[in-house]
Design brief:
heterodimer, A: 154 residues, mainly beta, 5-stranded antiparallel β-sheet, 3-stranded antiparallel β-sheet, globular, B: 385 residues, alpha/beta, Peroxisomal Thiolase, Chain A, domain 1, 9-stranded mixed β-sheet, two-stranded antiparallel ribbon, 14 helices, 36% helix, binds zinc ion
Chain lengths: 154, 385
């Protein structure tokens, strides 16, 4: 259907930066990762579920949570995929380098899954239930990138 | 209980990967004009308009205002509803609520998308949490792949089971002139197509599409006057189940399970497998066609592959699924859920032409979004008591 009769107008390079508040729970999580390499989750006083990332309210019970618990740093792969198709990462404007491992990690002591990269050095080792550990950045800044990736240790 | 509500007309575009010959308003107008023709109504008969899409695909935020030339919404009550992939089903549920309330007798419902206007994966990523979700996220396909991996590990399903679903939907699309992709594929072709995200191959997933759909709902006796065989709305349900992607139970669609249970309970359906006649499932990838019909209660956990291999969900089978060819054959995202609703309505109204399932009493349509949200509608030939 694309033909010379129909004009397409491009938006061109447009940049719209945002400044996100991550709140006291997110701030504590990233401070602990940056300064102490510790993963902090939070437990619901009612259903006892341990959430990571930590947050203020348990959605199931709709109650406030204040009970911090350390989880990880090790865990198992809850589920995963290996991304093989190239796409533009809207966070950077550049193509995401593929292939990469996308892990949903069940950190020891947590009930929800923590999303991060899994090293795909040896793809055969990546399976549900495999034990993993985080590899931390040598130059932590207080963000999700302070963890570089997880790697399988089985 | 509110008023009884029925669908009295539907319209959709001939969906394509790219429609440079129309802008958004004009695309919407094509579907609206066809729905009005189908119901034999004029725009002046419409009391209110509900419209939706996923606005980050086009980068236009007030489509309710911007689109009135095309939608017919000029100087009428019009609202926008947008809930991600579920949008098309949500607008139908919203329209149903407006008519059932007794405040509006005839409501026009519109879903549309011009997916060709931006990078789909990039745009979808902006719908997810910037701090916790986006680092590794790769659009809808990454979450779907993680779901399929978990299901396969839990129940021993294989990529061949997934491919069988894709073969079914692509064959069904041959009967639907509105579908974007109308080409049969063999099982081995699905498995040989490029791996996008393990275990999902290119031919396991939906395309991106420009398209629009419109549905007209009317109240009780009015509906019976407008349409000889209206499609009655029996029940609807909507469930959103998580905040961050890591919160979900991978391998099961909790939102489908809870929503479907609510509907079967509300309507007294005991055995959905026997009592439903056709399903239009918002199934953007093949493995969803296995996992989600188990959560719906059609078959038990882990039983879907055998049920599908046995041909039960093919045309002519016990419970045909996606006679339209489904989402794998056509996916203008904001319209996709409403297309499921319209196709289910056409089955009940006897207007599904080459893709008609005989003697439809109950049809079921769903919307899927985010990942892991589900909206759903039970349609019936008989007016609910
Ligand atoms: Zn709780």
């Amino acid at each position: 259907m694309a033909d010379s009769n129909h004009i397409i107008i491009e938006s061109g390079d447009a940049v719209q930066p945002f400044t996100y508040s991550i709140g006291m729970h997110g701030s504590k999580f990233f401070t602990e990762i940056r300064d102490n390499r510790r993963f902090m989750g939070i437990r619901c006083p009612k259903c006892k579920k341990v959430y990571i990332p930590p947050r203020g309210v348990c959605g199931d019970c709709f109650v406030e949570m204040n009970d911090w618990v350390e989880v990880g740093p090790g865990g198992v792969i809850g589920t995963f995929t290996i991304l093989r198709f190239a796409f533009i990462d809207p966070e950077t404007g550049h193509q995401k380098p593929v292939p990469y491992g996308y892990g949903f990690i069940r950190l020891d002591g947590a009930d929800t899954l923590f999303q991060h990269y899994i090293s795909v050095e040896d793809e055969k080792k990546i399976r549900i239930g495999a034990r993993v550990e985080p590899v931390f950045s040598m130059n932590p800044k207080g963000s999700i990138r302070d963890i570089e990736f997880f790697r399988v240790i089985d | 209980m509110g008023k009884r509500v029925a669908i009295v007309g539907t319209g959709q575009t001939f969906h394509k990967s790219h429609r440079p010959d129309v802008n958004g308003q004009e695309l919407i107008n094509e579907a609206v004009v066809r729905a009005l023709q189908d119901a034999d109504l004029k725009m002046k008969d419409i009391d209110a308009v509900v419209i939706g899409n996923m606005d980050h695909f086009e980068g236009i935020n007030y489509v309710d205002c911007w689109s009135v030339d095309g939608s017919g919404g000029t100087m009428k009550p019009i609202i926008k509803l947008t809930t991600g992939g579920t949008t098309g089903c949500t607008v139908a549920i919203g329209g149903y609520h407006l008519v059932a309330s007794g405040m509006f007798d005839k409501v026009l419902i519109i879903g549309w998308e011009k997916n060709s206007e931006s990078d789909t994966t990039g745009a979808i990523t902006t719908a997810f949490d910037p701090i916790w979700d986006r680092l590794v996220f790769a659009g809808a396909i990454s979450g779907l792949a993680a779901e399929a991996q978990a299901y396969m590990a839990r129940y021993g399903a294989t990529d061949r089971d997934g491919a069988r679903v894709s073969v079914r939907d692509r064959r069904h699309a041959m009967n639907n002139p509105h579908a974007q992709l109308r080409k049969e594929v063999a099982l081995e072709e699905v498995l040989a197509s490029p791996m996008l995200a393990d275990p999902i191959h290119l031919l396991d997933v939906c395309p991106r599409t420009d398209g629009a759909c419109a549905v007209i709902m009317a109240s009780g006796e009015l509906a019976e006057k407008i349409a000889p065989k209206p499609d009655w709305i029996w029940a609807t349900a909507a469930r959103h189940s998580y905040t961050y992607l890591g919160d979900a139970d991978y391998g099961r669609l909790t939102s489908m399970r809870e929503g479907a249970q609510e509907i079967w309970k509300k309507t007294g359906i005991k055995e959905p497998r026997k009592e439903l006649d056709v399903i239009e499932l918002y199934q953007p990838y093949s493995f969803g066609g296995l996992i989600w019909i188990e959560d719906m209660g059609i078959v038990g956990p882990g039983e879907a592959p055998q049920y599908i291999w046995d041909g039960n969900t093919d045309m002519g089978g016990e419970l045909p699924i996606n006679p339209s060819g489904g989402v794998i054959s056509c996916n203008p995202i904001g319209a996709t859920g409403l297309i499921r609703c319209a196709e289910a309505a056409m089955q009940v109204m006897g207007k599904a032409e080459g893709r008609q399932v005989p003697d439809v009493n109950f049809a079921f349509s769903t919307g899927f979004g985010g990942c892991w949200w589900t909206d759903m509608i039970l349609h019936g030939r008989k007016k609910p008591k």
